[in-house]
Amino acid sequence: MNYFEVHPLLTSLGNYWTHNHNYRLTLAADNVTLRVLRPDGRTLHFKPGTGAFWISDNNINDKVEKLADGWRYVQPDGTVELYNTAGLLQSRTFASGIRYDYGYDANSRLSSVADAFGHHLGLAYNDQGQISELTDPAGQRISYTYDDLGNLQKVTWPDTKVRQYGYTMSIPRDGAKSGLLTDLTDENGVKFAHWAYNDRALAISSEHAGGVDKFSFKYTLDANGKVTAVDITTPLNAIKKYQFISPAGINEIQSETHPLDVTKARTNTYDANGNLSQFTDFNGSKTVYSYDLTRNLPTKRVEASGTALARTFTTQWHASLALPLKEAGPLLITSYGYDAQGNLLSRSEQATTDANGSKGFAATVSGTARTWTYTWNSFGQLLTEDGPRTDVSDVTSYAYDAQGNLLSVTDAAGLVTQYGDYDAHGRAQKITAPNGKVTLLSYHPRGWLLKRDDAGLITEFAYDGVGQLKQIRRADGKVLDYQYDDAHRLMKVSDNHGNQIRYQRDNAGNVLLEEHSDSSGQLASLRLQLEPAQQLLSAAPNMPTGRSCSAL
Question: In what residue span(s) does the Teneurin-like YD-shell domain sit (predicted)?
């Protein structure tokens, strides 16, 4: 799930939330504008092109084709999505052959997602049309509850642990009485994260429990309310200044100041399609990029451009898929071959005498190429890998069951490792080594490894509600305990003999001090960590460009 605080998403997961199967096409009343909702929160707009395909902006390489019974959406990597005339996604097929099929209830709401191997997700809805329950391939249920304004309030996992979300109602969004996400209470019952906003509904701070990992944001807006600059105060009180530019209608970083010296900046330049054309670092070193602008694919990168240290990297692309055919760089040319589905069939590495890569594919070769070859099944699963050696066989082969689970791996020496007893999530619960040794594995309802039985030697694992490892009980009797603070940072490791490791961290999570003590409590070792300058440099946030996304 993802929350987009700047997009007016009113979805089946509540206001401003989306999920990774949230697809929809909508043809506008003018019949020449097609709106395409993507799971990442974007809404793309397409109009009829010169041929059969509808096209979007220059920086969007996806295409849409109108069919008699709906629409065909094609991505640069060869993924094809088929929609019916109502704009409901029917299937997604990756170039490799992997396919997902989508089903809907009588109200045109997504009710199922299934793959070719019989794995299935089921969705149920409440009276307001919001997802109330998701059933996973094992039949386990995840439930969702909402407040009276349609905001997602709780997620209850199969182990009955609950994650909760809080909102502020003081800032109306788009004229609607819905709130902005302000708090996340984790499955341990701890308020783990907090966000605050200004009167324009822009995030002005983000922090974790105890005030750590806190970033503060101060915006500069143009006359239309668009973000043109932001000052970010990091958890260690360094200030970074960002300037934005919109070369293709989307905010991109134009410049970023050094956290220790605001007179220094690294800068970006873009072409008309929004591709990065030049990057200049804090030391003034430039990297220059060239593109095939018909597909926005990078064809050349020159590092330390304009200097004696320049290094050139050149790429030639597949005619229809966003896959490289050749890559040339200093002292090496790599070539790739693919089948019609885009599966890699061969990879060849050829040494050259081109020390800086400037000669590209015309470089003089040196020695004999080393080549790997591969075969695949119709589901895009690797069957064989033949290594570069020619003096001996170096083939590794793979076998699968009817559900797509890996059954065995046979190495070049003929040694076989077997996998079996898969659960409904596709996790192997039994592994048999080439020497016959059997390892048994068992899992928590949320997917975490609980027990490993190595031929009778048992190791057990325990977790808190969030999934942080709390304890390991080893077969030799040793017990390791792990303690975290409310911000999910590891603070202490101890064993059942009284030995301990303690960590002191700064507000950015960097380890300042690592103390090792023995069973008597005596300090056995002391390690100091980062210098202050290094800490400041490490405290860089994900950059907000006016299009925020928080993965929760």
Answer: 366-503
Cβ-based neighbours of 21, under 8 Å, separated by 6 or more: 39, 89, 102, 110, 113, 121
SS3 421: coil
Cα separations (Å) of 125 from 112, 132, 144?
Answer: 12, 5, 9
Distances (CA, A) of 188 to 155, 301, 416: 13, 47, 43
Which band of pLDDT confidence, cut at 50, 70 and 90, is reported for residue 174? low
The amino acid sitting at 507 is N
How far is C-alpha 465 from the geometric centre of its chain's CA atoms? 23
In order, the DSSP letters of 75-97 are: -TTS-EEEE-TTS-EEEEE-TTS
Calculate ∠ Cα 80-86-92, nearest 5°.
Answer: 20
Q: How far is CA 292 from the centre of its chain?
A: 26
Say which residues have a Cβ less than 8 Å from residue 492's Cβ, sequence separation at least 6.
481, 482, 483, 500, 501, 502, 503
Tell me: the pLDDT tens digits for 470-496?
A: 999 999 999 999 999 999 999 999 999
Q: Which two tokens stand for residue 112?
A: 């199922």
C-alpha closest to that of 17 among 36, 7, 2: 2
The CA distance from 458 to 470, in Å, is 17
> How many whole angstroms from its chain centre is CA 411?
31
What integer pLDDT is reported at residue 119 of this predicted model?
Answer: 94
pLDDT-based confidence at residue 269 (cuts at 50, 70, 90):
very high
What is the secondary structure of 288-300 as a DSSP string? EEEEETTTTEEEE
Q: Within its chain, how far is the Cα of 405 from the centroid?
A: 23
Under a CB-based contact definition with an 8 Å cutoff, are residues 423 and 406 in contact? Answer: no
Residues whose CB falls within 8 Å of the CB of residue 31, separated by 6 or more in sequence, listed in order = none
Query: Residue 116, class by beta-carbon neighbours within 10 Å (0-12 exposed, 13-18 middle, 19+ buried)?
Result: middle
- The span from the CA of 297 to the CA of 337, in Å, is 18
Give the list of residues 6+ apart from residue 146 with CB closer than 8 angstroms, or none: 14, 126, 128, 130, 152, 153
Domain edges within the chain: 1-160, 468-534
Strand runs (DSSP E) across 485-522, as ranges? Answer: 490-495, 500-505, 511-517
> Can you tell me which residue has the tokens 């902006």?
57
**pTM assigned to the model:** 0.87
Q: What angle do CA 475, 478, 480 make, to 5 degrees?
A: 115
Longest dimension (CA), the chain: 79
Partnered with residue 463 across adjacent β-strands are 469
What DSSP state is assigned to residue 42? -
